[in-house]
Amino acid sequence: MFNSITVQTATETESIYILIFTIALAFVLSTILAVVYQKTFRGLSYSRNYVQSIVLISIISAVVIQSVGDSLSRGIGIMAAMSIIRFRTNFKDPRDTLFLFAALTAGISCGAYAFPVAIVGTLGFSLAAIVLYYSPLGPHSYFDGMLRFNLQINSSQQKELELLMHEFCRSFALVTLREIAQGQRLDYAYHVKLRKEKSYEDFMARLKSIDDLQGLSLMMQESTVDI
């Protein structure tokens, strides 16, 4: 019969309060990691699902370690059960993988009752991420949009386009360049950061005034916009 203050597990203690504390601590520590990730993120947009995954994977790992305890047979059984799950998500930024791994480590530490390790490790990782963000090793150029267009090779309006981008953009960087139309035209993709006094509408209107410019598109997103 279920006892309201105990739970049957293979762990060293049967107190349900310790179990609740373990899950709550994993939640708090992974939330700290998620907030640090969001505050130090630099890109066109971040995924809210990924931020939530940072929190949830910590709780899952804590519960798994609680379920295994010191039982070898349970550990083998859980490994067999988890082997049927296939994770197909690819992370373009290695930093995303590190934050997910940090949350997983925090959950494992909590599940193993290594609470000081979990707390100190999470705070240390978060502090290191913040220090690196503001250090010379952090990002120097921030972009808030993607500009795409194609232009005829050796076009006479190339110089006009460059002057226009310097006028409206505080910074820009060429991302991709490829030949199209059987080598007659070049397709450009730029990361752009507009000047504060300039508007997207005026920028697009000026770009459209260049006759040789085709396939023009400008995607503007802030770094805190969810996708």
Task: Summarize the structure in words.
The chain has 227 residues and is an alpha+beta fold. The protein folds into two domains: 16-134, no CATH class; 145-220, Alpha-Beta Plaits. 50% of the residues lie in helices and 16% in strands. The protein has seven helices and four strands. It has helices at residues 16-39, 48-68, 72-82, 94-111, 115-134, 158-168, 200-208; strands spanning 145-152, 169-180, 185-194, 214-220. Strand 2 (169-180) and strand 3 form a beta hairpin. Helix 1 packs antiparallel against helix 2 (48-68), helix 2 runs parallel beside helix 4 and helix 4 (94-111) packs antiparallel against helix 5 (115-134).
Classify the helix fraction into a percent range: 40-55%
Most strands sheet: 4 strands, antiparallel
Q: Radius of gyration from the CA trace?
A: 25 Å
Which spans of ≥5 residues are poorly predicted at pLDDT below 50? 1-11, 223-227
β-sheet strand percentage: 15-25%
Distance between the termini: 47 Å
- Globally, the shape reads elongated
Mean pLDDT: 80
- Give the assembly state of these chains: single chain
Helix-strand pattern: HHHHHEHEEHE
With strands numbered from the N-terminus, the spatial order across the biggest sheet is 2-3-1-4
Structural class given helices, strands, pairing? alpha+beta
Question: Number of folding domains?
Answer: 2
What is the total tally of β strands?
Answer: 4
The number of helices is 7
